[in-house]
Task: structure prediction
Amino acid sequence: MTAARINREQLDGFCLEAMRRSGMTEADARLTADVLVTTDTWGTHTHGTKQLRNLMKNFREGRMDVKARAELVGEGPGWAQFDGHASMPMPTSVLAMHTAVTKAKATGIAISTVCNSGHYGAAGYYAWLATQQDMIGLSFTNVDPGVAVPGSRGSVLGTNPLAYAVPAGKEHPIMLDIATSVVAASKVYAARQLGKPLPEGWIVDAEGLPTTDPGNYPLAGALLPMAGHKGYGIGLLVEILTGVLSGGAFGSNVRSWVFGDAAPVNQSHTFIAINVVAFEPVEVFKQRTDTLIRQIKDAPKAKGADRIYLPGEKEWECREDALARGLALPEDVRVSLRGLAEDLGMSAACLDGKAP
Result:
């Protein structure tokens, strides 16, 4: 039996109520709901509203402080440095990207770093924010170690996601959001929750040997980096641009936002905005980007292929469908949201298409 779809407004409302009950301000709750629900409309359910339950647990367990606010601790014409003070990561990250965008209007390119933050959701959301101001956006975050590197037996680096988004004209923005591991850790957790084995090549066990069993990760074993040594090198760059550059925690000092002792979160993020008008008129850039998109999409197709996708194109189509017909949330997301409702004494009726 197919689960009922839920419209965006219902899901927004459910998330807002959960955050209000957890003590968040209305402004911070609305920003956070937009990040998580937008991510679900893209079909990236591993990083959408499923994450809200653990985020709210972080307040109760002392990993995050519901009353904390990010602090601007340093800035110049083309840069800004924030201390998140273990506040809700989404409002902090939106602030940091908006700051980079504002500075890039004057300098052409600008960068913001954040230390002492937590799980900020999908990196692509913040890169996309820059395209709304006709800029190219880049977004990076470090994560607690969970990925092996060539020659290691256990975890050395985090999954360390990176994202970029590029404005276009008649086409949707080009958008790529990837972990530098072969797969996002949340997909391993989802498989474990559903009792499913993993595809080969995703993780290794405690001895560094390939396994399809998600049961002991992350306490034992590790994810593999994408593309071997190439993914390792890119993941290391993300670690440097985030934890090292921001003055925050890096490498083995980055704490989990879910597992282990309930110590304050200390992930780091970096956001870059590139103002295309510093290089050429916006409309010219968008037309040229559209031309590049068409060249790629119109390239000769391989046998059996009927279409070539641009990065982000499947997500934009998923979003159009979700906004028109409602979101088809996977069962693991519904389980997490029902658990959130139980934690906070809320109704979860809207998740089944019913009035609260």
User: Anything to note?
Assistant: The mean pLDDT is 95. The beta strands are 71-76, 79-83, 109-117, 135-141, 162-166, 174-178, 203-204, 210-211, 222-223, 267-275. The two ends are 22 Å apart (CA to CA). The longest strand covers residues 109-117.
